[in-house]
Design goal:
This protein is of the alpha/beta class. The protein has two domains: 155 residues, Vaccinia Virus protein VP39 (Rossmann fold); 84 residues, Putative methyltransferase TM0872, insert domain (DNA polymerase, domain 1, Orthogonal Bundle), CATH 1.10.150. Helices cover 40% and strands 14% of the residues. Strands 1, 2, 3, 4, 5, 6, 7 and 8 form an eight-stranded mixed β-sheet that branches. Helix 7 packs antiparallel against helix 8 and helix 8 crosses helix 9. The radius of gyration is 21 Å and the shape is globular.
């Protein structure tokens, strides 16, 4: 079984419909993963169309080698460098950008990547394993206060204080945390009451992953570039998997279009403000019960779509 067949794209039909693929258009799949979305985009492009894929995971870039198509190009890059990458390919404007955020199923299911507490493996958690600090290294050096802030801020974990204290105590006692199972067990022992239906380590693992990969910072840097790159009528399509991401995306789209929603008695008229650059297309889309049954990862997915206006 190829790597590409091990990952089921979330909200695939809805995503492709939202991109509104033009046969001669230029599109960016900024999170290639295992290429499920890219293949569907290519299937709708004509001979004059083009698709550029990005991923900061070398395994994903290697999987892209399965696609032999002159219309397709892949780059090993974080999506925050989207503008520079496209410029390097001589591309200044595109008809659509897709961001499928979070981790892919192959990343989660490979124990050596250290993303999941379901498998025992080294605490890595880096999306790009060629750079940056591993989770194990971070936990070996971080202060209790910073760790508490990370777990609370990025995991929205109400027991962040207890978890941080337990991790630092274990380290002080000469019990370094080097594997996923070690961390999961320690978190479970520190939490007085777990949420029903959720592993006690879920929020802590999420927090560490987001922090180590600077996921929110990357997204904040990327969204404005996408708006700049889109041609009028071009679409920005974003799939998020937790409230922190979705909130950021929602606020960005709103910031680009909310010129008409001024407070009462605001001393500036809407007509005096710069025109909206993006407009939201429909409401947020969630996976159907049928899709969630077939692919449980889709349960938390939220799809948002925005279209570029003709405004400069």
């Amino acid at each position: 079984m190829s790597a590409s067949s091990q990952h089921i794209p979330v909200l695939l039909k809805e995503t492709i419909a939202a991109l509104n693929v033009r046969p001669a258009g230029v599109y960016v799949d900024a999170t290639f993963g295992r290429g499920g979305h890219s293949r569907e985009i290519l299937a709708r492009l004509g001979r004059g169309g083009r698709l550029i894929a990005l991923d900061r995971d070398k395994a994903a870039v290697a999987a892209a080698g399965e696609i032999s198509d002159p219309r397709f190009t892949v780059a090993h890059s974080a999506f925050s460098d989207i503008g520079a990458v496209l410029a390097g390919f001589g591309v200044t404007h595109v008809d659509g950008v897709l961001l499928d955020l979070g981790v892919s199923s192959p990343q989660i299911d490979e124990a050596a990547r250290g993303f999941s507490f379901r498998f025992d493996g080294p605490l890595d958690m880096r999306m790009d394993q060629s750079r940056g600090q591993t989770a194990a290294q971070f936990l070996k050096e971080v202060s209790e206060q910073q760790l508490r802030e990370v777990i609370k801020g990025y995991g929205e974990e109400r027991f962040a204080k207890q978890i941080a204290r337990a991790i630092v105590a274990a380290r002080t006692e000469g019990r370094p945390i080097a594997t996923t199972r070690q961390l999961a067990a320690l978190v479970a022992s520190a939490i007085p009451k777990a949420e029903p239906g959720q592993d006690p380590a879920t929020r802590t693992f999420q927090a560490l992953r987001i922090f180590l990969n600077q996921e929110l910072e990357e997204l904040s840097l990327t969204l404005p570039q996408c708006a700049d790159l889109l041609v009028p009528g071009g679409r920005l399509v974003v799939i998020s998997f937790h409230s922190l991401e979705d909130r950021l995306v929602k606020r960005f789209i709103r910031s680009q279009q909310d010129r008409d929603n001024l407070p009462a008695n605001f001393p500036v008229r809407a007509v005096d403000l710069p025109p909206s650059r993006l407009v939201a297309v429909g409401r947020a889309i969630r996976a159907s019960a049928q899709e969630i049954s077939a692919n449980p990862r889709a349960r938390s997915a939220v799809l948002r779509v925005a279209e570029r206006t003709a405004a400069a």
